[in-house]
Amino acid sequence: MKKIFTVVILFIVIFDFVSCKKSPTEPEVNTNPPAEDVWSSFSYPAFSYTDRDANGSGAYFETYVGDPDTLMKSLALQDCRVLYHDPGEAPKIKQISLVVDTLNGVAYTNGIAVSSEMTLFSSNYLSSIMSNRSKSAVISEIEGVLAHEETHIWQKNADYGSTDGWSVIEGEADAVRYLTGHDNIKRRSQGGKWTDGYTTTGFFIVWLQQNKDKDFLYKLNQYVGTHYEFNWDVACQHILNEAVVDLWNEYQAAIN
Ligand SMILES: [Zn+2]
Questions:
Q1: Which of 56, 80, 88, 146 has the fewest CB atoms within 10 Å around its CB?
Q2: CA 22 to ligand 1 centroid distance, Å
Q3: pLDDT tens, 65-77?
Q4: What's the CA-to-centroid distance between 149 and ligand 1, angstroms?
Q5: Ion ligand 1, residues whose Cβ is below 5 A away
Q6: Where are the domains of the chain?
Q7: pLDDT tens digits, 163-183
């Protein structure tokens, strides 16, 4: 009995010694290669940049953003990663033209031909934000506006002439702006309606993604792609099995 006891003690001591040879904090050697990023095969369109206000405030655009083509290329990938699961799902765009011009408003995006899109950025708007914001704040605003505008190039189209269609297009663009890191949650405010578009709809989409379905924006964009006559209530019933008014009321109470 005593001999068995001694053997047991010896075993425990040896086991303890052996097990202590490897520190529990020692990193495990991962023998699996890192998973390949599917987005490494993303096919970029051609980019072009034109400054139609080079003798005015447009001259400052490159001072803030550096190379405009590089910025638009970076935003293309960021936007598509938020909207799609893999590059094969993104639309095939051949050309994106960025034009800085003296415009009313902030920025616009238009299709100019099949697979060719133009984003216009207002040099008047640039002039107005340069006068009262820091350099980093101006850069953030330009990147945020262009993240929104480029979403219009990559997202699925709904009927822009209807309230529901317009609000899902503009809401998705601001949701993508936030989810790509180019907006501030401080721009979220209470009130309004889910069909108000822009940040009002955008932060609602973000909240649904973060609280109801982590794939909500993807599913919403896919749904828009097969439902040009978009309807918020039908879409939310389809994706989340809940009425949009109930989701909106829950969202409003949550951000109170
Ligand atoms: Zn827009």
A1: 88
A2: 57
A3: 999 999 999 999 9
A4: 6
A5: 170, 173
A6: 42-154, 156-256
A7: 999 999 999 999 999 999 999
